[in-house]
Design a protein that fits this description.
- By secondary structure, the chain is mainly alpha-helical.
- The protein has a single domain (3-222), classed as Glycolipid transfer protein (Glycolipid transfer protein, GLTP), CATH 1.10.3520.
- It is 61% helix and 0% strand.
- It contains ten helices and no strands.
- The chain is globular and about 55 Å long.
- Residues 40-171 form the Glycolipid transfer protein domain.
- Keywords: Transport.
- Pfam families: GLTP.
Length: 232
């Protein structure tokens, strides 16, 4: 069973909203989670990408803030929209603020993966992910602090894997035992030809709900004056 079959998909946007628990489970599978005394390790797509330690840590922290709010108020947090409305706070540290930053980061990574699928001429994923960063998260990284964060992202982009290594790990049968990176161009070319036809349809299918969630929640945040997820 390929790695992507182990990764829970994001929920669809329904008339009642976006299911909070399903969203949190999908986000955790996307980002990954270290083992704790109460929960097992979850190997996520970020673990396969590598190089984004700071982003993974930040996203994991924001997932936890939203989860804590959900666990304490399940009856009034069935959907993400209900959770935000009933919290009634946009302060830093609130679940509403954490969800906003989580969605911004998901927009960045989702866009990077989508561009990877669209432009098959790029073997190095640093190219689509740099483009994705410029169109999403970078717009919120302003001022002196933002400049520093942008420099960190620039370093992280350079650590992005080759498409062939990324796909080869997504095609792995056991998420706990991912294959080592391919060292030679001949190896990468051969493996990419073998695994791309299997991996790309699965990745496209898995990604499909994410931009809809981001766009829906951006409209919801802007309408309720909770903030913004997409900056034009």
């Amino acid at each position: 069973m390929p790695f992507l079959d182990h990764v829970k998909p994001f929920p669809e946007v329904t008339e009642s909203g976006i299911d909070t628990l399903q969203f949190l489970e999908a986000a955790t599978n996307f980002v990954g989670r270290d083992a704790t005394a109460t929960s097992p390790q979850v190997i996520g797509i970020f673990d396969v990408l590598g190089g984004f330690g700071m982003v993974k840590s930040d996203m994991g922290g924001n997932i936890e803030k939203v989860r804590v709010r959900y666990e304490a108020n399940k009856a009034t947090s069935v959907t993400l929209e209900e959770l935000v409305k009933n919290e009634g706070s946009t302060k830093a540290g609130s679940a509403t603020d954490a969800l906003m930053w989580l969605l911004r980061a998901l927009s960045f990574t989702g866009t990077g993966l989508q561009l990877t699928l669209e432009d098959k001429s790029q073997e190095e994923l640093s190219v689509p992910f740099t483009t994705a960063y410029g169109g999403t998260l970078k717009k919120f990284h302003t001022g002196v602090l933002g400049f520093g964060i942008s420099k960190v992202f620039g370093v992280a982009m350079k650590a992005c894997p080759y498409r062939s290594n990324f796909y080869n790990k997504l095609a792995a049968e056991d998420p706990a035992h991912l294959p080592a990176d391919l060292k030679t161009q001949d190896e990468r070319t051969k493996v990419l030809g073998d695994v791309a036809p299997k991996v790309e349809p699965l990745l496209q299918q898995w990604l499909a709900p994410l931009p809809k969630i981001v766009q829906h929640m951006d409209a919801f945040y802007k309408k309720g004056k909770y903030g913004e997820i997409i900056k034009n």
